[in-house]
Amino acid sequence: MPEYYSGNVVDNHRDAIEEASTAIETDLFIGGKFRQSEGGDYFETVDPTVKEPIAEIARGQKTDVDAAVSAAADAADEWGDTVPPERQEVLRELAERIEDNVEEFTLLESLDSGKPLDVARGEVERAAEFLDYYAGVCRSIEGKQLPYDSDALIYTRREPYGVVGQIIPWNFPLVMVAYKLGPALATGNTVVMKPAEQTPLTALRLAREAQDVVPDGVFNVVTGFGEEAGQPLTEHPEVRKLAFTGETTTGHAIMKSAAERAVPVTLELGGKSPFIVFPDGDLDVAVESVAGVMYYNTGQSCDAPSRVFVHDDVREEFMEKFIERTHEEVVGDPLREGTTMGPLASEAQFDKVTSYLDVGRDEGATVETGGGIPESEDTEHGYFVEPTVFAEAQNDFRIAQEEIFGPVETVISWSDYDEMIRQANDTEFGLAAGMATNDVSLANQTAEKLEAGNVWVNKYATLPPGTPFGGYKQSGIGREHTRETLLAYTRCKTVDIDTTHSPM
Ligand code: NAI
Ligand code: MG
Question: CA 427 → CA 252, 271, 421, distances in Å?
Answer without folding.
Answer: 17, 9, 11
